[in-house]
């Protein structure tokens, strides 16, 4: 369970560029919630996600994950609870390292790293199986540099890396925005399947209102650093794009 | 003696120097290629290694122990740079320059206030000396240097294949990704810089013994020579050696040897030694530019 309590964040305080990005945001995600987050540019969607991920420290408020206070935890420490996929396909993987090396790094998220060899033969077999599920033919290319893959392949791989060790929370930050429509649909379907199969608690930021409505059991709309709308279950199912547009326009 | 003969007779010396600088270039390879930072500490830490080793030997410490201690001194220099660029958030290049400048004073202190200190191979048992560079047998420094290069390449190959080693590589490759996968990137940067400078000081310790003296200026432009070795190695062996990490490191060592052999060649052809640093800089600048002009992906990243 993720809990944001009265979280505030202002960028460049005291300057002409001052920007209130999160304005007393409180939010509780229940286990297994798949929340889609929408809102205009600068509404605070990505900021909210990054606050949870620890990209920056928040000004005030608290963030709790399964009762653990992670507010002041450095990003790489809380990474053990989190799976992340970024908007930029370049960000989620190490391009000059092999596919299997990237996966092995992800598999050790949250465990202590030592002077053991970074990947074992058993792991390799497991990665091959997991990659097969992606259906992109990557299972035969374990020792290919990730930099040679397409954006869609890299996002799919990042998704697998994020969920290889089941995270307490999966953070998808517009992870299909940089892909062509066809690839975006494939990656989105894949995300949905992985989330469903593992019952992952998920926050997905998206610009696409149709996707926001089609996926997940809950929808949040943000505006000027605040949560403007929070609907779930049956109520969400009844929502349409034009409903959302109406709310947007007020 | 005609130029050809004098070149041939100078060849063993060039090879030995190339191997010593090859170890130094491996240090540069770690910071420049693996960590993806330009670490200028090395200009200072190579002299630190030389100074510390030489003074320890003169104080009666066995040469091997002195070399080990020198490498440790280099690691401390790397630690300082690492802390400056992680804990103090000073840009990596500036952090290196700060440490390098500070090391100038430290090195003078190590050498009892003198800019230059000799060590005689007649009075002390050194691991290697220029004197035997044309001798046949195990006294020849080239034997030891080749062996050391092989051992260090093997050790580095293993290390960068371990969990910690992979974390360091990931940190250099994509810091956001590394952090998201739970890697303490600050610690990896510090560890990488310590290893790099330890290796550089190690090579400085060998260099001081080889040439029979340490000089406070012996590291001037070392980073550029290291980069030259890395780049020459990549240009010449790049395609053939690219698939294997150990071979890529071997290419760096060979790059340094080639650098010194070519240097020897142009020197015997009558080049003014004073122009060396200018020529080295131009060569490195040109080779760093070529991949950029080709529009290839990020070989010239600094």
Overview of the molecule:
The complex is a heterodimer of chains A (250) and B (302). With 250 residues, chain A is an alpha/beta fold. Chain A has a single domain, classed as 3-Layer(aba) Sandwich (Rossmann fold), CATH 3.40.50.300. In chain A, 36% of the residues lie in helices and 24% in strands. Chain A is built from 9 helices and 10 strands. In chain A, a hairpin with a 2-residue loop joins strand 9 and strand 10. The longest helix of chain A is centred in the C-terminal third of the chain and has 18 residues. Chain A starts with a strand and ends with a helix. Chain B is mostly helical. Chain B has one domain: ABC transporter involved in vitamin B12 uptake, BtuC, CATH 1.10.3470. Chain B has a two-stranded antiparallel ribbon with strand order 1-2.
CATH architecture of chain A: 3-Layer(aba) Sandwich
Number of helices of chain B: 11
Low-confidence stretches of chain B at least 5 residues in length (pLDDT < 50)?
Answer: 298-302
Name of the CATH homologous superfamily of chain A? P-loop containing nucleotide triphosphate hydrolases
Estimate the helix proportion of chain A, in percent.
Answer: 25-40%
> According to CATH, what is the topology of chain B?
ABC transporter involved in vitamin B12 uptake, BtuC
């Amino acid at each position: 369970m993720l809990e944001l309590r009265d979280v505030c964040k202002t960028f460049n305080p005291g300057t002409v560029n001052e920007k209130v990005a999160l304005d007393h945001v409180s939010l509780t995600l229940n286990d297994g919630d798949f929340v889609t987050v929408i809102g205009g540019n600068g509404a605070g969607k990505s900021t909210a996600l990054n606050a949870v991920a620890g990209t920056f420290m928040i000004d005030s408020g608290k963030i709790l994950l399964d009762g653990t206070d992670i507010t002041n935890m450095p990003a790489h420490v809380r990474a053990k609870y989190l799976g992340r996929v970024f908007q930029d396909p370049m960000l989620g993987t190490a391009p000059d390292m092999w596919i299997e090396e990237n996966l092995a790094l992800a598999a050790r998220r949250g465990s202590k790293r030592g002077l053991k060899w970074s990947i074992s033969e058993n792991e390799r077999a497991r990665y091959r199986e997991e990659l097969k599920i992606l259906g992109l033919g990557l299972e035969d290319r374990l020792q290919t540099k990730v930099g040679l893959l397409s954006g869609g392949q890299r996002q799919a791989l990042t998704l697998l890396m994020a969920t290889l060790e089941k995270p307490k929370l999966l953070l998808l930050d517009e992870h299909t925005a940089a892909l062509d429509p066809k690839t975006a649909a494939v990656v989105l379907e894949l995300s949905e399947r992985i989330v469903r199969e593992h019952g992952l608690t998920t926050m997905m930021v998206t610009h696409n209102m149709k996707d926001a409505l089609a996926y997940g059991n809950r929808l949040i709309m943000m505006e000027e650093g605040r949560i403007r709308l929070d609907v779930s279950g049956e109520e969400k199912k009844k929502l349409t794009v034009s409903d959302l547009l109406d709310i947007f326009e007020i | 003696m005609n130029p050809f003969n004098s070149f041939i007779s100078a060849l063993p010396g060039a090879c030995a120097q190339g191997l010593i600088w090859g170890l130094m270039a491996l240090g540069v390879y770690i910071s420049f290629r693996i960590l993806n930072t330009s670490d200028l500490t090395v200009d200072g830490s190579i002299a630190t290694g030389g100074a510390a080793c030489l003074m320890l030997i003169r104080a009666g410490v066995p040469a091997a122990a002195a070399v080990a201690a020198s490498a440790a001194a280099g690691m401390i220099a790397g630690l300082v740079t690492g802390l400056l660029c992680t804990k103090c958030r000073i840009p990596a290049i500036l952090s290196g320059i700060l440490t390098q400048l500070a090391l100038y004073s430290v090195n003078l202190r190590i050498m009892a206030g003198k800019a230059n200190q000799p060590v005689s191979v007649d009075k002390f048992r050194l691991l290697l000396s220029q004197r035997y560079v044309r001798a046949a047998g195990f006294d020849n420094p080239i034997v030891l240097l080749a062996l050391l290069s092989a051992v260090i390449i093997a050790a580095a190959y293993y290390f960068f294949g371990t969990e910690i080693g992979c974390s360091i590589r990931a940190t250099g490759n994509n810091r956001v990704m590394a952090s998201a996968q739970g890697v303490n990137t600050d610690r990896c940067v510090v560890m990488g810089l310590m290893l790099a400078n330890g290796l550089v000081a190690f090579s400085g310790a060998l260099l001081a013994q080889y040439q029979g003296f340490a000089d406070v200026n012996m590291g001037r432009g070392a980073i550029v020579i290291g980069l030259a070795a890395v780049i020459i190695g990549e240009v010449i062996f790049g395609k053939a050696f690219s698939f294997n990490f150990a071979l890529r490191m071997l290419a760096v060592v060979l790059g340094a040897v080639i650098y010194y052999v070519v240097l020897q060649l142009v020197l015997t052809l009558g080049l003014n030694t004073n122009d060396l640093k200018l020529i080295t800089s131009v060569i490195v600048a040109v080779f760093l530019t070529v991949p950029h002009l080709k529009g290839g992906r990020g070989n010239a990243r600094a």
